[in-house]
Amino acid sequence: MPPPFQRHVFVCTNRRPDGHPKGCCATKGADEVRAAFKEELDKRGVKGRMRANAAGCLDTCSFGVSVVVYPEGTWYGGVKVEDVPEIVEQHLMQGRPVERLLMPFSRKEKAEG
Ligand code: FES
């Protein structure tokens, strides 16, 4: 049986060769973003309930660093290290997505939903 994660964060850490037309999240600081999520979750003592994993390309490269939070399926784009405490506190802990960082299609889904 899988662990009962209350929230599961995936951070794209995909790296493409220099000069690739699609770019990649790795060159935008993805490893640091993932490390920041792990650190914030550790600080809050939620190990076993919430987890941040590295992911391959999430196919939203132009919005990188790309992050998706489940079970909601909330997509964040352009995530920087300094945004992580806000996402962890407001969304993961309190259940309120950080609107200003939502990818456009995630925003639309929320508006329609
Ligand atoms: S390289 Fe990160 S979403 Fe594609």
Summarize the entry for a quick read.
This protein is α+β, with helices and mostly antiparallel strands and 113 residues long. It is built from 3 helices and 4 strands, in the order E-H-E-E-E-H-H.
Structural features, described:
By secondary structure, the protein is α+β, with helices and mostly antiparallel strands. The protein has a single domain (7-112), classed as Glutaredoxin. It is built from three helices and four strands, in the order E-H-E-E-E-H-H. Strands 2-1-3-4 form a four-stranded mixed sheet, covered by helices on one side. A hairpin with a 3-residue loop joins strand 3 and strand 4. The longest helix has 15 residues, at 30-44. The mean pLDDT is 93. FE2/S2 (inorganic) cluster (FES) binds next to loops. It comes from Myxococcus stipitatus (strain DSM 14675 / JCM 12634 / Mx s8).
